[in-house]
């Protein structure tokens, strides 16, 4: 058993003789430690939430249309969620030989529900001035059941001010399906190739589905909100985590074409520096996509969604494999990291102040009022994080890992928003 776990933890060098056992490559093993807390990933999350905030200031507020494609920040969120959740599940399986679904769902509930339940009474209070209590309750019900994306995609009932929760619903549906599936696949000792193929199949299906209907404007609403047309972002993140784990933790047979190619890439001058170059290219493409691809273009569904997901994968892999590189340093600056840490609260609260202004004043807020609404959003997210989210996350981790907290417990890896 000890030898098997040692093989899982290391990337081996090509043996001189096929018969002797492979020796671990200490350089590669030390280059890819356990994920822990990576400030640069918070910075990536900060870029994602800033895109969403800015695009909403035009859609619902009074700011000019600075980045029409800011909605692609949700794609970045999806990629991060898939990557982080899969990596943490693999680390747990490596350390314990099992994945505790009870612990996983307790941590997810502690991370997501308290902040959402804090927001909903304020939402009901504001919208109670516009519609009846029954209509408010009916619009909140799909939110707490995490099916608002299905309701919105099929135009079942009006979602008064809660349609933005569609992405939370997609992520929660992912949480309900992927961890049990991954646990079952790992228990079969089939290796990681089957989970990789499953992720690849989901990506191909989702991208093909959007491509078929992208030129039909009547389908755009469904393609934007439906689980089957947006799940590829999460699958991209899962696939990236599985590939990175396979390459860095499992032996690679250099006598196969794939093994020889991977070994060659890792031994190029500069090593993982090539991944950082790819990360810079991904960041540039995300910036370009933010500026060009609004959610009304046919190309957004057929081209921008998958390429933005691929670009996000390149950025994530770059900052994870090169934590001291220039890209990781850029994304680790305090402003981006703070916005990333508050991203879930910012996403929850970003529209309510603007909605309240439009309800009470019966007009769109101007530029100054929109800026004021953003300040209110930030304050609400900061208070929520400090006094609601962080204490409950620590409590949940103590319930699943014991009362003693390590340094990583105090800075837990955060998935998605």
Work out the strand percent: under 5%
Shape: globular
Radius of gyration: 22 Å
Residue-averaged pLDDT, rounded? 86
Sheet having the most strands: none
* Oligomeric organization of the protein chains: single chain
SSE run:
HHHHHHHHHHHHHHHHHHHHH
Provide the helix percentage: over 70%
Explain this structure to me?
With 417 residues, the protein is mainly alpha-helical. The protein is 72% helix and 0% strand. It has 21 helices and no strands. α3 (39-59) packs antiparallel against α4, α5 (101-127) runs antiparallel to α20 and α19 (352-361) packs antiparallel against α20.
Keywords:
single chain; 417 residues; mainly alpha; 21 helices; 0% strand; disordered N terminus
Write the layout of secondary structure elements.
Elements (H helix, E strand, L loop, with lengths): L1 H8 L16 H6 L7 H21 L13 H24 L4 H27 L5 H12 L3 H6 L12 H22 L5 H21 L6 H6 L1 H4 L1 H18 L7 H10 L6 H20 L5 H24 L4 H6 L2 H8 L1 H7 L2 H10 L5 H35 L5 H4 L7
Helix pairs in contact: 3-4, 3-17, 3-18, 4-8, 4-12, 4-15, 5-6, 5-18, 5-19, 5-20, 9-12, 9-15, 12-15, 14-15, 18-20, 19-20
């Amino acid at each position: 058993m000890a030898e098997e776990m040692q093989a899982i933890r290391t990337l081996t060098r090509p043996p001189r003789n096929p018969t002797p056992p492979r020796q671990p490559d200490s350089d590669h093993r030390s280059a890819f430690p356990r994920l822990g807390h990576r400030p640069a990933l918070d910075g990536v999350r900060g870029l994602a939430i800033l895109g969403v905030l800015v695009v909403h200031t035009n859609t619902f507020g009074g700011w000019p249309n600075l980045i029409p494609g800011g909605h692609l920040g949700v794609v970045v969120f999806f990629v991060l969620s898939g990557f982080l959740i899969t990596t943490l599940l693999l680390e747990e399986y490596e350390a314990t030989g099992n994945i505790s679904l009870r612990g996983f769902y307790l941590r997810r509930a502690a991370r997501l529900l308290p902040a959402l339940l804090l927001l909903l009474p304020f939402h009901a209070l504001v919208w109670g001035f516009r519609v009846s209590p029954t209509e408010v309750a009916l619009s909140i019900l799909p939110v707490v059941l995490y099916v608002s994306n299905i309701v919105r995609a099929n135009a079942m009932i009006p979602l008064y001010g809660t349609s933005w929760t569609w992405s939370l619903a997609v992520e929660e549906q992912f949480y309900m399906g992927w961890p049990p599936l991954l646990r079952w696949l790992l228990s079969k000792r089939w290796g990681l190739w089957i989970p990789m193929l499953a992720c690849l199949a989901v990506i191909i299906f989702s991208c093909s589905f959007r491509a078929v209907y992208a030129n039909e404007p009547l389908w755009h609403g469904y393609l934007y909100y439906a689980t089957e047309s947006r799940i590829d972002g999460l699958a991209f993140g899962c696939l990236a985590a599985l590939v990175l784990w396979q390459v860095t933790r499992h032996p690679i047979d250099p006598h196969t074409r794939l093994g020889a190619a991977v070994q060659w890439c890792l031994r190029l001058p500069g090593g993982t520096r090539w991944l950082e170059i790819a990360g810079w290219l991904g960041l540039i493409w995300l910036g370009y996509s933010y500026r060009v691809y609004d959610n009304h273009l046919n190309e957004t569904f057929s081209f921008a969604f998958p390429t933005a997901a691929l670009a996000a994968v390149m950025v994530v892999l770059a900052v994870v494999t090169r934590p001291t590189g220039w890209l990781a340093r850029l994304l680790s600056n305090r402003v981006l990291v703070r916005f990333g840490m508050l991203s879930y609260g910012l996403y929850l609260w970003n529209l309510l102040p603007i909605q309240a202004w439009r309800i009470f004043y019966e007009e769109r807020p101007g530029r100054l009022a929109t800026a004021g609404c953003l300040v209110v959003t930030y304050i609400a997210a900061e208070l929520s994080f400090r006094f609601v989210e962080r204490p409950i996350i620590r409590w949940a981790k103590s319930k699943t890992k014991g009362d003693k907290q390590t340094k990583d417990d105090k800075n837990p890896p955060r998935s998605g928003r």
